[in-house]
Amino acid sequence: MTPPGHRTLSTAALVGVLALTSACGSDDALRAGQEPPAAPEDIACFGGSVSAAGSSAQENAMYTWIAGYQLACSDSLVLYDSVGSGAGRSQFLESAVDFAGSDAALDEQEHEQARRRCADGSPAVNIPGYVVPIAVIFDLEGVDALNLPPETLARIFNQDITHWNDPEIAEHNPDAELPDLRITPVSRADDSGTTENFTGYLTAAAGDAWPHDTGGTWPIEPVEAAQGNSGISEAVEAGSGTIGYVEASHTADMATVSVGVGGEFVDVSPDSASRVVESSPEREGGTEHDHALELDHGTTESGTYPIVLVTYEVACMRYGTEREAERVRAFLDYVLSEEGQEAASAETGSAPLPADTRTRLRASVAEITSVG
Q1: Beta bridge mates, 133
Q2: 103 annotated to bind ligand
Q3: Under 8 Å CB-to-CB from 186, ≥6 apart: which residues?
Q4: Residue 120 marked as a ligand binder
Q5: For residue 204, how far is the Cα from the chain centroid?
Q6: DSSP 321
Q7: Is 87 exposed, middle or buried (0-12, 13-18, 19+ CB in 10 A)?
Q8: Span 11-131+281-292+311-370 CATH architecture
Q9: Is 194 marked within a binding site?
Q10: Backbone phi, psi, residue 35, to 5°
Q11: Do 134-276 and 11-131+281-292+311-370 have the same topology in CATH?
Q12: In the chain, which end has fewer C-beta atoms inside a 10 angstrom radius, N or C?
């Protein structure tokens, strides 16, 4: 039964849940050609269900985690609704789901709301679970690679550069045959952590070329808009002269932009993206077990890809019952395990969390408890 207040599952998650529920731990839970995700020998299983909602950026990773966990724990059911980070945080704060996936950490106001949602006024915490680059994808006949500095990217998405043969684009791509074709930027229609991280990058790196604040909603009237990472990917692929931004596992075989960093152009990859996270400190002012990061989107370090998102698993430190606490604790521990991180990386191209980081985060998850 769908938990009260839980919305319709996304297609990918629903297919996964139905397959996993009916398969009772068999390989039928997997996508065609997918290897069974490994699970730790000491994995903690629970009976019943745990529900979550949020980031579409981690949708593919979550499908993999659900498959791995439920294959190891046949009596457990994990429900995930890929509705976008903003909606996921709202559902969590309204107690409609047990935890949320969000590409942006809870802000100060949301932390206050969370103390009313969590048991005994306990805090909610941001636990980094998924680190992945945001790729800038495009569809332009005859062109399979582009170099774009941050100022040029900002002017394209701000609709100041409107045609592909603009001199500013041509300057950095002398060997490309750029057509006199109108550029169609595709942005998110929903409140999105991917948008918040992408606009955060433009704010930090593009200077006056991006005259907008960082935020989860697109700041200007869009040329074309789509729901979720999958929606942008489909819109860019179906168009001509289109360009958009997606979590890297949604790029399929589409062309991607190499981004200007310092005096070079850097390709999107897990290795180049992980360098930003490794050097990013935790946000000041948080509680002991809150691990929100201050990402340096404006870095000029060589070989570093700066457009990165970290998806957080947002959970209470105390729940009303031990049953709730146990289920959240067990599943998030699997997400943060070496096996869970490697499974997501193999499926999506994400950067697995370093071992010392995983140890620290799992120690925080182990402290999730109940009032009873």
Answers
A1: 308
A2: yes
A3: 222, 223, 224, 225, 226, 232, 235, 236, 239, 242, 243, 244
A4: no
A5: 19
A6: S
A7: buried
A8: 3-Layer(aba) Sandwich (3.40)
A9: yes
A10: -75, 145
A11: yes
A12: N
Which residue type does 126 have? N
Q: Is 85 annotated as a binding residue?
A: yes
- Cα-atom radius of gyration of the chain, to the nearest Å? 20
254, two tokens: 């589409």
Written as one letter, the residue type at 8 is T
Identify whether the C-beta of residue 59 lies closer than 8 Å to the C-beta of residue 12.
yes
User: Nearest-CA neighbor of 178 among 153, 136, 146, 135?
Assistant: 146
Of 106, 57, 123, 109, nearest to 293 by C-alpha is: 106
CATH H superfamily, domain 134-276: Periplasmic binding protein-like II (3.40.190.10)
Structure tokens given for 42: 């000491």
- Compute how many other C-beta atoms are within 10 angstroms of the C-beta atom of residue 22: 10
- Domain spans in the chain, listed from the N-terminal domain onward: 11-131+281-292+311-370, 134-276
- Paired sense of beta strands 264-266 and 255-261, if any: antiparallel
Q: How far is residue 192's CA from residue 163's CA, in Å, rounded to a whole number?
A: 27
Is 56 annotated in a binding site? The answer is yes
Give pLDDT tens digits for 135-193. Answer: 999 999 999 999 999 999 999 999 999 999 999 999 999 999 999 999 999 999 998 88
Percent helix, strand, coil in the chain, to 5, is: 40, 20, 40
Give dist(CA 183, CA 155) in Å, integer.
11
CB 266 within 8 A of CB 258: yes
Which tokens go with 172? 């950095």
The pTM (predicted TM-score) of the whole model is 0.77
Q: What is the pLDDT of residues 77-132, one digit of tens each?
A: 999 999 999 999 999 999 999 999 998 899 999 999 999 999 999 999 999 999 98
193 a known binding residue? Answer: yes
**Beta strand extents in the chain (DSSP E only):** 48-54, 76-81, 99-102, 124-139, 146-148, 184-188, 224-226, 242-247, 255-261, 264-266, 308-316, 318-319, 369-370
Helix, strand or coil, per DSSP, at residue 78:
strand
Query: Are the beta carbons of 164 and 171 closer than 8 angstroms?
Result: no
Range list of H helices, 41-192 = 59-72, 85-93, 108-117, 150-157, 167-171
What six digits make up the tokens of 238? 């179906």
